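Thread: Newbie trying to understand structure tokens

Hi all, I'm a second-year student working on a class project, and my supervisor (Dr. K.) asked me to get a predicted structure for one chain before our next meeting. I've only ever worked with sequences, so writing a 3D structure as a token string is new to me. If someone could post the tokens and maybe explain what I'm looking at, I'd be very grateful. Here's the chain:
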Amino acid sequence: MASGEHEYRVNVEWIGNQGSGTSGYRAYGRNHEIRVAGKPTIPGSADPAFRGDAARWNPEDLLVASASACHKLWYLHLCADAGIVVERYEDNAVGTMLDTPTEGRFTRIVLRPHVTIRAGGDVALAEHLHHAAHEKCYIANSVNFPIECEAVIETVEV
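---
Reply by user tm_fold:
Sure, no problem. This is what the structure looks like when written as tokens:
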């Protein structure tokens, strides 16, 4: 694995000017496009609770997705190293955000991965590797709120 400092360059372009810029809170759209060279554009907006477009990704969706994806990538890596063959992995993650007149922040994310491993694999080790993945996850190590994991492991004959 590559070690050292890594840099990520992202372009976010606001496309919500409806003719009068930000002349008033209701005068502008929240839509934007997220771009990284060589990758598909991600259509973004605000959460609908904040006058955004429900059909587009919002920052809160992306944060929860980032935590889930980072955990999954570490988990698969650790399983491969341990000789546990993962056949399927699906996570239904949920992020909880507090929004008050004086504060807005995430209070937690709960990952709920449902993992299917090949029969004969060590189920107890597969469960333990979720803890190890959490300890290694770059996103979990970067946020100031808890990310919990409620994993379900099952086996399947191949």
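A couple of things are worth pointing out once you decode it. The chain has two domains: 11-50, 59-155. The helical segments are 59-82, 123-136. Feel free to ask follow-ups in this thread.
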